[in-house]
Amino acid sequence: MASLVLKENREKSLLRNHPWVFDGAIEEEIGTPRSGATVDILSSSGKWLAKAAYSPHSQIRARVWSFNQDTIIDNNFFTQCIKNAISKRKAWLQKQRTNAYRIVAAESDGLPGITIDLYGDVLVIQLLSAGADKHRDKIVHSLKKIFPDYVIHERSDVAVRKKEGLEQYIETHVGVLPNTVIIQENGLKIEVDLINGHKTGFYLDQRKNRKIAGRLCRDKKVLNCFSYTGTFGLSAALNGAKSVVNLDVSESAIDTSLHNVQLNSDVLNEASITHLMVDVFEQLRVYKENKTRFDVIILDPPKFVENKNHLVRAARGYKDINRLACELLNENGCLITFSCSGLMREDLFSKIVADAAQDAGVYLSVQDRLHQDCDHTVASYFPEGHYLKGLVCIKSKFI
Questions:
Q1: By C-alpha distance, which of 239, 158, 235, 165 is closest to 197?
Q2: Is the same domain home to 169 and 214?
Q3: Which domain holds residue 46?
Q4: Res 396: pLDDT
Q5: Are residues 376 and 275 in the same domain?
Q6: Residue 244 predicted with pLDDT over 90
Q7: What's the CATH number where 166 sits?
Q8: At 399, is the pLDDT very low, low, confident or very high (cuts 50, 70, 90)?
Q9: pLDDT at 389 over 80
């Protein structure tokens, strides 16, 4: 097996069980490993450190499978890792009213580059790294063993694979894939588009936050920006919002949201929910000009930061929408604002929101800090797994 020898004093992160080895940390490659191949990671003194998947095209040159030298990266390895991931979620699952959740959260579950989500009786996998891609058959074999009666569909159709030298890849490995599946979440029915939906089909990571947001909306006039499938709006309506306006630029997103409203007509007032297919930034300015105000504004924009070069531009975008939201809130109104960009640090996001409030001439009191739901685990050794951050803020004037 080929080896990667690190530069002097570059093993510190590995000794803390962090699973990434960057190209700049490597002094020498011994042998000629192929993309996705398992390699040994050695310190500059030759000490064995880890077994990792080699990725020649990525700045993250290797992703660790195991810190145990005796581990064999075979079918049993993947089966056991997936079982361990399910076991970690068992207590959490017993408290949930859902049939859709994340089974494997990549590095945080010891399986770098591998995401597995469950929707009813369908498993959707994404393989985002060279090592994950190489072991596709083993991963599918393990899932068939653990979930023998489930459809297994792969949606490795994301741009990040290009950084690994991989093409986009879509295939149904087991069973017949339905176009959509109805999931249950916090008393709501939601239709998930398994073929065209974002991520693996749906934003499961916001489940807990939708419930929290909904409880803040009783008898409130609610604006749900970047509404996508409309689920924040559904939660608001379910909890007795006076009115809900969903804004999204995508026609297909609006259509999906309208369908989700109809699916839940037995538990909410359809007439209280309206939809506008508009550019959110432009519509917020229209509301400002027209002096339209809201009691609750939810900002859940798409990822603004794809790489570090976009960070400054993204910060301007976050500040712009949060400033406008501050200006559109009624006194004592509630701003619920998110960033799903992993490169956007939580402290920086908090500062951007604070600066937006300052520019709007209002005072925000942070009442709660929100994160991804518990099935989207964050391992102690992998803080990068914490990507979703949100703030619940109450508006008041300066005295």
A1: 158
A2: no
A3: 3-66
A4: 86
A5: yes
A6: yes
A7: 3.30.750.80
A8: low
A9: yes
Q: CA 132 → CA 6, 172, 388, distances in Å?
A: 23, 17, 23
- Give the rounded distance of the alpha carbon of 24 from its chain centre: 28
Amino acid identity of 206? Q
Residue 302 pLDDT > 90? no
Give the confidence band of 257 by pLDDT, cuts at 50, 70, 90.
very high
**357 with 220, same domain?**
yes
Residue 310 has pLDDT above 90, yes or no: no
Residue 398 has pLDDT above 80, yes or no: no
Distance CA 165, CA 54 (A): 12
The number of distinct structural domains making up the chain is: 3
Q: How confident is the model at residue 305 (pLDDT cuts 50, 70, 90)?
A: low
| Whole-number Å distance between alpha carbons of 156 and 170 | 6
The pLDDT value given to residue 117:
98
Place of tokens 């300052």: 358
Structure tokens at 101: 């959740």
Is residue 191, in this structure, part of any structural domain at all? no
